[in-house]
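User: We ran a pulldown and think these components assemble together. Before we commit to crystallization trials, I'd like a predicted model of the whole complex to look at. Sequences follow.
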Amino acid sequence: MPIIQVIDVKKDYYLGNVVVPALRGISFSIERGDFVSIAGPSGSGKSTILNIIGLIDVPTSGELIIDGKNTKGLSDKELTRFRHEILGFIFQSFNLIPVLNVYENIEFPLLLGKTQVPKSEWKSWIEFLIGEVGLTEWRNHKPNELSGGQRQRVAIARALVTKPSIVLADEPTANLDSTTGEQIIDLMKKINRELETTFIFSTHDAKIVNIADHVIRLRDGMVIENRRSGEDIFEENAFTASAEN
Amino acid sequence: MNVVLLRIAARNLMRQRKRTMLLAGAIAFGIMIVTIINGFAGSFVKNISDNFSYLMGGHVFVSGSEYTPSGKRISIIRDDSVIMQALEDSGQKWVSLQKTSQTIATLIFEGKSMQQTLTGIDLSHSGMIKERLALVDGNWDNISWPNAIIISQSIAKKLNVLPGDVLVAQLQTITGQNNVGEFRVAAITIDSSFVGSMMTYVQLEYLNSLIGLGKNEYMSLGIMLERLEKSGPFANALYTSMKGMGLNLFDRSTKKEDGSMTPFQAMLLEQKTEQWTGTKYRLYTIDDVLAQAQQIVVALDTGSTVVLIVLFAIVMIGISNTFRMAMYERIREIGTMRAIGVQRNEIRSMFLYEALLLALAGAIAGIILALIAMGLLTFISFDPLSPVFLILKRGHFSFYVPPLRAIGNILLIAVLTLVAVYAPANAAAKLPPAEALRTVK
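Assistant: Here's a predicted model for the assembly, 686 residues in total across the polymer chains.
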């Protein structure tokens, strides 16, 4: 059973009285443990679909099923709790809490409620993650004392600390140089293999897209390519998009 | 309470140190002003009461009043054995008793004269005299002279007298006859206060002989208690006890509803309209006499609360705007926190914690500043003959901040700050996470 099912999801934004469609009814599924890339140029709807999958935005229509649960109609409180339990986030601008140090930033999600990590294991689990992202010597530093790559490593550790089923990363390498960006993607891939966490990241970097084992390519709010391990599994939108172009 | 959010709130305060210092400083300044006013009001009544207790020789008083055959009303306690028994029966404790007679006399020495109230007490056995007065000239042994008089430095200077000199006193008996007596200056005291400079003490027995009272008679009995605050319950118990002994007493509860008259003034007015036979007793406390001072304190306290509210209404507008600005500055952090799993109410709480910490820090700093300021103000010394001396403690400002009042001020500031910050905190809590994360500062 897929961990994520996106069914005919549409999202419209309003600029005054003008309706701007960001997603035009897209559908796809993601399998548990996949390393998924959502690719496409700027304005294609990558961030919008990630926000919807991340439950921080709601679709105008359509359905989203995560881990077998239909998220339609959930209250803000339920969505927040669901996010905390199931999802981890990595942001383009790292988005660390500036007043907390590395250790505290990683620890932060654990302090917000029930997680899969027993309290007795918190310390060792955080230390493990800090080691895994190579920041042992930086554990007491504040974000403004770290480089971009280091900050993104902290964000990765923070996203993983609650042992979420899914980690969403919105253009995680956009603010990094290419070498550091590749290192970050390698690290995410490594964790994906070791912990079997589903990773979904958006990017417009072709080099990074190819590392993914499932690629969903968007253009103008539609899926134009849906390829898993070399196999095209859905191309209907691609034809539509090509016809429109 | 989520400890991590409290920690973030505390650290957020330190992110913009200058801004935090300014806001906390504004709160501290307001609290300092109000605390000083409260401190002054708090000691105002106590100082007046202490000074008057000293002047009148007690905290609770019993005085007798009766009509002479000619219809003149006089102050007199002829036989105090029943009063003493009532005192014993009341079950209350007191520190000392002072029997007093008073009259106004003109003191004359070598062509110089001045009018003065003579207070007759048992000089040799009055602990209060030696405890309160500091001698500048003369000797405590002299106070055993039968016609000893103790005068203040300023009176001695005006009359140009020294210890051993004999003054002539012109006075009237209680029935209105003119009389003359001679007093020998036993001691000259330092003017430790405005009240002190007004006091002239003589031997009770000698004064009584001059004003026509018997050896064991006197005008009023002053009862000094351990603390002024005990005077109310003490007087109530003594009143019940004296009533129980069958003594004729003026009603203690008589007072004007509109507060235009002190209970003591009301009691005196009542006497003028009433007729009785035998001795009728008045029982009153320093508080009854000084009830109007209490009204001044209420006015001061009300004024300080108004100052507090007006001052903080202005400060709160600043705080509200600052927090609104802080919300926009941290909009992406809010979005991140919401994405990670922080609930709306927790975002709101985080801002409110921050406001609360700011208010508490400002309030505590304000109280510390007020304590320092009050400490410094107590060093200012006032002229003993200045009328403000009545509200001072030994010629200096004194302050007493009732702890509940201070706590009340802190709570008021905390509540006002929370009210001021609630709107921006709520706006932060209601921000949709996606919108917050999209915002570019």
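Chain B touches chain A at residues 2-4, 8, 11-12, 14-15, 332-333, 335-344, 346, 432-434, 437 (CB under 8 Å). That may be worth checking against your pulldown data before setting up trials.

User: Thanks, that helps.
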